[in-house]
Amino acid sequence: VPFSTGFVRSLAMEKLTKEQRSANMRAVKSRDTGPEKIVRSLVHRMGYRFRLSRNGLPGKPDLVFPGRRAAIFVHGCFWHSHSCKRGSLKPKTNADFWAVKLARNAARDEEQIVRLKEQGWRSLVVWECAVKDERRLAARLRRFLESRTGS
Ligand SMILES: [Zn+2]
Predict the structure, then answer these.
(1) What Rg do the C-alpha atoms of the chain give, in angstroms?
(2) From ligand 1's centre to the CA of 88, what distance in Å?
(3) How many angstroms does the Cα of residue 80 sit away from the middle of ligand 1?
(4) Ligand 1 midpoint to CA 85 (Å)
(5) Ligand 1 mean position to 8 CA, how many Å?
């Protein structure tokens, strides 16, 4: 889930170096047009029906399966601090600003998954970088969706 409004994003972008900015533009572009669409399309082709969102659910999951009480988040690696290369990118300019912002995002992500669990929902996070390997992703999605317990 994109964590910020366009305004916050553009504000944040001003604080990146040119190199970081171009890396980040790629991330933003692929997130807005790519990963969520790919996951939705794949899940649909696998024969599962879902909703795009559901009011009142913590964290506004990208795909919601009400009958299964299951929710899927498609997260951008940079904004949600994935452990991969892109997610480990630490802007050198305004390092403190970024450290706080990214840590806050990660804390909020965890909190939302806990809140979902408290309400009886299982959650799966699909990382942007995991979307390329469609066969592996499909297997993982099926395991998650068919699982009756845990997350
Ligand atoms: Zn990643």
Answers:
(1) 16
(2) 9
(3) 9
(4) 7
(5) 22
CA 129 to chain centroid, in Å, comes to: 10
Q: Which residues contact 70 (CB under 8 A, 6 or more apart)?
A: 64, 121, 122, 123, 124, 144, 145
Q: Cα(first)–Cα(last) distance of the chain, in Å? A: 19
Place of tokens 């909190």: 111
- What is the whole-number distance in angstroms between the Cα of residue 129 and the centre of ligand 1? 4
Note the pLDDT tens digit of each residue in 19-64: 666 665 555 554 445 899 999 999 999 999 999 877 789 999 999 9
Q: 76 alpha carbon to ligand 1 midpoint, in Å? A: 7
DSSP annotation of 131 reads S
Distance from residue 86's CA to the centre of ligand 1 (Å): 6
Give the pair of three-digit tokens for residue 37.
């669409």
pLDDT tens-place string over residues 118-133: 999 999 999 999 999 9
